[in-house]
Please model this.
Amino acid sequence: MYLDTKGFVTVGVGEMLANAPKAQTLAFVDRAGQPSTQDAILAEFNRVSQLFPAKTAGFYRSTTSPVLPHTAIDTLLMNHLNFFDRQLAGRFPVYADFPDSAKLGLLDMIYNLGAAKLFGTFSHFMSCVDNQDWLGAAANCHRVGPSQARNDWTKQQFITAAATPASGPATSASTAATT
Model:
């Protein structure tokens, strides 16, 4: 467990643990790989919540810290990504035709912000995505909170999308018109 930039107890790839009972639902193990007790998970949650936020994960680890196995972290991450992918597909009718790099940028945005904040407060960005204006999306994707490196990575995804040849129905129609 670690504290994110806002001071929330978090595990894995940004899985916020709203409270100790949420942490206790996860398959933490001890150093020997044995299931952690509910008391050990509670103690770790309470210990970590008292520390300074936004340090590296190693800063929070002690010799008795329960850990989440990589398979459990991967499962949590994939569940989130699949959920967010469905939300994006529901919001953008031609999402399936977006360049993969644009999808990655959008997944990073929604993973960080949540659907309500992304769809509700990033109106310039959303307008650019609606119009598949990837350079405009790149210019409007900066968030407060994530590191500059993460913001730069996300921006680069949209720049890459702008350089990707169009695919899907629009390409087929323009190809048919020129043949």
